[in-house]
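Intended use. Records like the one below are meant for learning the mapping from a protein sequence to its folded structure. Do not use them to infer anything beyond what is encoded.
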Amino acid sequence: MTDASTTAARRPGEPALAALGLSAPDPDPADTSAHSFPGGGRWRTEIPSCEGPEALAVVLKEASRLDVPIHRISQGSGVWMLSDAEITEMVESTGERDIELCLFTGPRGTWDIGGSTRTDSRGAGLRARGHDAVAGCVEDAVRATELGVKCLLVADEGVLWTLHRARAAGIIPADTTLKVSALIGPVNPAAYAVYERLGADSVNVPSDLTLDHLTEIRRVSGAPMDMYIEAPDDLGGYVRMYEVAELIRRGAPLYLKFGLSKAPGIYPYGHHMRELTLATAKERVRRGRLALDLLARHGADGDMAPLGSRLPGELQRFEISS
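Structure written out for the chain above:
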């Protein structure tokens, strides 16, 4: 890979535009994120929406074929949609390749009987409604970690704080990582810093944030950021592949999430959606290859975090009172 510390990244189209007198201003060094992952590297990769062992097998096979490095694989339907045997198989398959497996926790507001999410305001959103919903998320977290899952996806601030406290208390393993879902992702630096302090180890921001927004966040927090380089339609359908080098420069440490636009939603997954799920799993890996090829062509493919790395480094937390 190119050594990003010694070679400046080439911006898309810049040599041709410069020859035509249409050069853009040089990037401002002050916009460059000062943060990186512990152990080195400024970006990691994630394949999302991997909804079970069969989809996982497709992702791993395609990643080997296309030589796509993977740090994390995540699932969106939830722990409760998988049997113990399925979770164990996924844990073993990812463990053999030193890939972090992240499963979504518990009930969410868009699936229960509450009506506010179906109003024009979309009130409450994905959050856990009531004590029982929080309890369901905790139940999922305990079950998943007992089966060997080391990363949990969370879509509620109260659930995040509860699981962070559970981690500190030894109810779930101390090295469990907590990932904030794109479905509640913060859109300003103050909110981002709050998620970090509530226990988030990585925070998925909406894919419509501007480059300046990423710089603003990085001035207050070094917590790893997750971002769909291509977002599903229900998250906007944004395709930002040509910005990937600049997203890393501004947003590091950054997980590059390879989603898929123009594809139907698959949550909660079931066998009735098998063919679609397997086809889209395979295509997400190909999209990852395309994004990585862009990075290479622009001389910005250096500084990838070592494969197998998963921990976020030292982060800021609210004090847990006894």
